Amino acid sequence: MSQEQEVHPATPGGTAYTRASADARTDASSADTNYGDTTRLRADASPAAESFLLFDTWVLGAPVNNAKLRVYATTGSEGTLAAWPVSNDWTESTITWANRPLYSGGPVLHTPLPIEDESWVELDATEVVQGDGLYSFGMGMGSSDGASFVSRNSTLESLWPTLYINLEPSNCTPGTLVESHEVNLPDRAFYVSESSPDSRLSRQTSMWVDADVGRETFLSFIIDPRGRDIKRAVLGLRSRDDGTKHGPKLYNVVPGTWTPQSRTWNTRPQLEPTPIAELGEVPPSTRMLMDVTDLVRGRSGTLGTNGTGFRLELGLRSDSSDGVEFYSPYHGQDVYRPKLTLYFDRPCPP
């Protein structure tokens, strides 16, 4: 295990991110009403509701490798979310259903996954986000079973709509291969406690693992290889103030046991009997790295724009009473959050 060097946003070869600079929901039932100052966005077919997001990608300083749009769902739905590019000719304080910008062509972003409450929804925006500039998206659902999402007016800043952009390395010479990497953030993460077996410990800034109290942590990532040969896959977790001499073990979740209801000790996902990795000693305030290449290489599924993505579901369990606390994705600073980094060789663009 080792410490990880964090990449500053907008650094060539790294990951830039920008939160929405404007967002608003629109409702067909109140076609002339502006909802630009509400704390929740909405996507629904009946009653019809659409939401709109604006992002400023500033000066990226390098070509775009890939881009992901992430929104945080506060309610679940059996339906799936779609987003589409629209013009930037709208403002948060004046947009309504009657004057909202309509889809005018271009790639439609979508995911086949139903929406889970207290989870991030991730859409591949690579075909739309090609460089510096302003990007606006409409967001809706074809199902009457709609869902709500955190807006930038919420006090929960870490859950605001965000556009993540992986950039090409600065040493990318046309016609050659260069090592690139892509940072993936969890779409679901939580811990459960045996002392509160029926409680959902929602949106905690820490993830605990302990045998004494009985606490386990779960997190999942949506991964889309998109035809790339993954050379390495590294999971990074950052410990908080207190470390441990006996770190937890990392496990695969038994397929099919993680459901939208799996958020308490009594309903938690089942773990495979054999661990993937063991952390050993975990110093305080240190990013611990675990090689999970074998879990990622060669796998495929049906998620993502290219239909090759899959969801990686992991759990942490300890057999020691000397527990440990990790930062969760709900922490306000991106530098502390769990991350899964994929490394691959990529042809440099002409």
TrEMBL record:
Location in or out of the cell: Secreted
Keywords of the record: Secreted, Signal
Record flagged with keyword Secreted: yes
Source organism superkingdom: Bacteria
Comp. bias intervals (Low complexity): 18-33
Gene Ontology annotations for the cellular component aspect, listed alphabetically: extracellular region
Stretches for region Disordered: 1-37
Broad class of where this protein is predominantly found: secreted
Residue ranges occupied by any Carbohydrate-binding module family domain in the UniProt entry: 15-156, 191-301
Keyword Secreted appears in the UniProt entry: yes
InterPro entries attached to this UniProt entry: CBM96
The protein, known as: DNRLRE domain-containing protein
